[in-house]
């Protein structure tokens, strides 16, 4: 029988979150982190959250840090002169998703169903979410994230799938400091094409 602690279902190899609760999100972003000893990623949603009080974006590389001088009120033998802190590097997992000219994001869209699973045996983070747009159309999205143990520099999102025939727009980002590299993908039931030109340029000025 699986154990349930703080709305998380625990079994031998998995942590399962079957309901999104705002008050648990910061903690669960930490619990659903994945890494390989070199790259580490917090369990943030790919599509992001508008309200940054409930989310902290995080991607880290082991050995990439900054130093700072340590000031002591009173020094003693073997006290270090400098300290180190990990630096939150570029966010390469951001994916903006639009359906019915509406951006799908947790705190701006209606959630019909939700599940997130951290699989320790497979080394994957999987999430399924069903959004309902303001026009009443439902869109089921599946995400799977992996940080490779065989190629330490590799982290991938292996799957994003929709389960209806509506046309959606997928917008990927690599964000660091004030610079954002963007690419749009337009998908439909009859095929897929990509373009560097956003169909919604007014949204990203």
TrEMBL record:
One of its GO terms (biological process) is carbohydrate metabolic process. Signal peptide: none annotated. This is Alpha,alpha-trehalose phosphorylase. Residues 17-168 form the Glycoside hydrolase family 65 N-terminal domain. InterPro entries: Gal_mutarotase_sf_dom, GH65_N, Glyco_hydro_65_N. One of its GO terms (molecular function) is hydrolase activity, hydrolyzing O-glycosyl compounds. PANTHER family: GLYCOSYL HYDROLASE-RELATED, PROTEIN-GLUCOSYLGALACTOSYLHYDROXYLYSINE GLUCOSIDASE. It comes from the Bacteria.
């Amino acid at each position: 029988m699986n154990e349930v602690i703080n709305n998380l279902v625990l079994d031998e190899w998995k942590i399962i979150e079957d309901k999104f609760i705002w008050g648990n999100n910061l903690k669960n972003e930490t619990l659903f982190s994945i890494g390989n000893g070199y790259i580490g990623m917090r369990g943030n949603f790919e599509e992001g959250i508008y309200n940054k009080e409930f989310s902290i974006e995080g991607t880290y590389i082991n050995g990439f840090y900054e130093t700072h001088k340590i000031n002591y009120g009173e020094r003693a033998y073997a006290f270090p002169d400098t300290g180190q802190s990990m630096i939150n590097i570029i966010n390469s997992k951001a994916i903006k998703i639009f359906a019915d000219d509406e951006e799908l994001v947790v705190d701006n869209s209606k959630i019909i169903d939700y599940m997130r699973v951290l699989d320790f045996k497979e080394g994957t983070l999987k999430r399924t979410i069903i959004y309902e747009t303001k026009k009443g159309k439902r869109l089921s999205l599946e995400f799977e994230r992996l940080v490779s143990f065989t190629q330490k520099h590799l982290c991938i999102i292996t799957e994003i799938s929709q389960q209806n025939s509506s046309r959606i727009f997928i917008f990927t980002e690599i964000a660091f400091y004030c610079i954002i590299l963007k690419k749009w993908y337009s998908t439909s039931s009859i095929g897929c094409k990509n373009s560097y030109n956003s169909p919604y340029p007014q949204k990203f000025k």
